[in-house]
């Protein structure tokens, strides 16, 4: 059995010794860490360390429970790849989720094109 994601690093019974035995490609940062994010907080260091560890082992990271622009900005500053939570979107029905994703992809494509144009201007 191959485990695709690692969830539950905030659980007291989770042992880091199991990391060598498990195969996973995604690590999820628990909302308890995200909800306490502030500039200079100890929680920031824990999240930063989780992000660094995940990067070194080639895993993606999803932070759950981002509910404010400040939490989202701090996660982005720390280098988190993926964020879920009310800041991104409230839960959606299937059709609404598909429409949201399509719109989000279009916005990201426009943003990427804008960033490319800006980098060409700087050169």
Rg from Cα = 17 Å
Total strands:
4
Number of helices: 4
Low-confidence stretches: none
**Whole-number total of structural domains:** 2
Tell the overall outline.
globular
- Predict the CATH topology of the largest domain: TIM Barrel
CATH class of the largest domain: Alpha Beta
Order of helices and strands: EEHHEHEH
The CATH architecture designation of the largest domain is Alpha-Beta Barrel
Major sheet: size, sense and barrel closure? 4 strands, parallel
Share of β-strand residues: 5-15%
- What's the CATH superfamily of the largest domain, by name? EAL domain
Structural class: alpha/beta
Record the SSE blueprint.
Layout: E1 5-6, E2 26-29, H1 31-34, H2 42-57, E3 60-64, H3 69-78, E4 82-84, H4 94-122
Parallel strand pairs: 1-2, 2-3, 3-4
How would you describe this structure to a colleague?
The chain has 123 residues and is α/β, with parallel strands linked by helices. The protein has two domains: 5-88, EAL domain (TIM Barrel); 93-123. Helices cover 48% and strands 11% of the residues. It has four helices and four strands. It has helices spanning 31-34, 42-57, 69-78, 94-122; strands spanning 5-6, 26-29, 60-64, 82-84. The protein has a four-stranded parallel β-sheet. The longest helix is centred in the last third of the chain and has 29 residues, at 94-122. The protein is globular. It starts with a strand and ends with a helix.
């Amino acid at each position: 059995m191959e485990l695709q994601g690692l969830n539950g690093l905030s659980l007291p019974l989770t042992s880091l010794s199991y990391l060598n035995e498990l195969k996973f490609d995604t690590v999820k940062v628990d909302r308890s860490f995200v909800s306490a994010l502030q500039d200079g907080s100890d929680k920031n260091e824990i999240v930063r360390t989780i992000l660094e560890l995940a990067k070194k082992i080639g895993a993606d990271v999803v932070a759950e429970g981002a509910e404010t622009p400040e939490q989202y900005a701090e996660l982005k500053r720390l280098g988190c790849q993926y964020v879920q939570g009310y800041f991104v979107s409230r839960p959606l029905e299937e059709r609404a989720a598909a429409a949201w994703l399509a719109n989000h992809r279009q916005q990201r494509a426009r943003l990427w094109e804008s960033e490319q144009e800006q980098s060409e201007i700087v050169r």
